[in-house]
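Predict structure. Chain length: 152.
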Amino acid sequence: MRRPAAVLILITSILLLLLAVYGCTQTPDDPYKALKRKDYRTAHRLFLPLAEQGHVMPQCILAGLYYEGEGVPQDYAEAAKWYRKAAEQGHDEAQYKLGSMYDRGEGVTQDFAEAIKWYRRSAEQGNSNSQFHLGLEYYLGTKIPTNYFVNT
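Prediction complete.
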């Protein structure tokens, strides 16, 4: 009679131990894995606190989610806000994207001088998209005076 009770206690203890070990060691979802599997709502939820803490890459990714409307309603103003935060920390792609948004007036008031400023900052870091757009603007002279011999 005592033996079945001891076995039951032992089995229960083992199950509780396994539950405690596996239940407590599960890692939270990785935002990059959520992005990879295209679970944009989860990615947004996980990237937001990181972006708010000032991490550049999550800020840039969050901006892209808002720009494309993936996992959140499309919101160019919110995208511009997050691109600006990353751009001000020197992220060249965020600087390029923010320049593009100023160029087209997406989420911000269209401002060619501001667009050129961000294109230039990005181009100086070697961003080829910004270098192309900046070179094109100098060549065409539509938004800045034509200068075929500019030394940026």
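Summary: Residues 88 and 95 are 8 Å apart (CA to CA).
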